[in-house]
Amino acid sequence: METLAWILVLIPVGLLLYSYVGYPLILKLVGLFRPAPRTWSDPPEWPLITLTIPCYNEERSIGATIESLLALPYPADRRQILIISDASTDRTDEIVRSFADRGVELLRLPVRGGKTAAENAAAALIRGEIVVNTDATIRIESGALMKLARVFQDPSIGVASGRDISVGSVEAGANRGESGYVGYEMWVRGLETRVGTIVGASGCFFASRRELHDELFPEALSRDFASCLIAREHGYRSVSVDEARCLVPRAASLQAEYRRKVRTMARGLDTLFFKRRVMNPLRYGGFSLMLISHKLGRWLFQLTLPLAGIGLVLLAAQGHAWAAVLLAAAVIAAGLGVVAMRWPAGKPMPAIMAISAFALWSNLAGLVAWLKLAQGERNPVWEPTRRPAPTG
């Protein structure tokens, strides 16, 4: 029985240590023997780009978002801004039409189909050779668009992902753990870029060659994650451009962040299963191993995490005091996470509670996502996370 208990504990612990510590260390080591990514200057002629922004009922933010896009330093005659309204029922369409004289285009879908369906519908209207995907509540920093576009001078690059900067105020203090995780994720993508390619792009701000974007992708899946997999299938690599930064406001509540994580993880698992052939190292080499390490390994940790709890209970029953201490600590942390879900809005949250809440609800979201995959549940129609205006 004790042997079984140790196995139950070591499976998720091993996945955790490898995915979050071992894998980055391997990337760091391999990267020491790779040349630094090339720094690109301005091209003789800037590529024609199309910025696509799928949205649903974003009357509070869409006007400011369009203004910020128009203000970005990029030649106006080399830029197309296309807003896709997913059958919005508020003033979103009216606001977008008010920018028509400044070259902003609106594609209104008569029936809600979800973010990926909106991106698919936009394919026929895209004029750019580079397609930049972003969200209605994101702010792209000045110069970031040019920095993202420059790297496509390298013919081997099919996808370029920007760097997310998680921002928030006191009202979003319950999600401070998210900021640390986003920073870690961007660091790992930087290591992957040094090795040669990333395995997933940022849904908030990424660009791809038009021939990769034009694929009619299943509506229930995640295009940002799949973009790097599609690029690899077509012989391209994908990179993270750290200098191309965008501000991503944290959701104002843990409830909203939890729902977002369930949705994105479930779509991610579905996408990985749909593109599972890319995990074949005999065909796709190191990219497959990176994909398994970065994505599947983390998701398997969340799936197997309950085993650790069972193992600790068994070890504690066998008289191992350390197991009882760890079990008590986990229960306390989970309790703090539950309390955080009801924390008063606008009141600063203690750091230990914010970290506990992030760990609890992120891992629970992963378990729920696996359950949805097992049940075959698909949710292509998304309810966008309502985020406060970016600051900083």
Q: In words, what does this structure look like?
A:
The protein is α/β, with parallel strands linked by helices and 392 residues long. It has one domain (1-392): Spore Coat Polysaccharide Biosynthesis Protein SpsA, Chain A (Alpha-Beta Complex). Helices cover 51% and strands 14% of the residues. The chain has an 8-stranded mixed beta sheet with strand order 3-2-1-4-7-6-8-5. Helix 1 (2-31) runs antiparallel to helix 11 and helix 11 (286-317) crosses helix 12 (321-340). The relative contact order is 0.15. The mean pLDDT is 90.
Task: Offer a concise description of the structure.
With 392 residues, the protein is α/β, with parallel strands linked by helices. It has 13 helices and 8 strands.
Label this structure with key terms:
Spore Coat Polysaccharide Biosynthesis Protein SpsA, Chain A; 8-stranded mixed β-sheet; about 400 residues; 13 helices; alpha/beta
Q: How are the SSEs placed, and which strands pair?
A:
Elements: H1 2-31, E1 49-55, H2 62-71, E2 79-85, H3 92-97, E3 104-108, H4 115-122, E4 130-134, E5 139-140, H5 144-150, E6 157-167, H6 176-195, E7 205-209, H7 210-213, H8 223-233, E8 237-249, H9 254-274, H10 281-284, H11 286-317, H12 321-340, H13 351-375
Helix pairs in contact: 1-6, 1-11, 9-13, 11-12, 11-13, 12-13
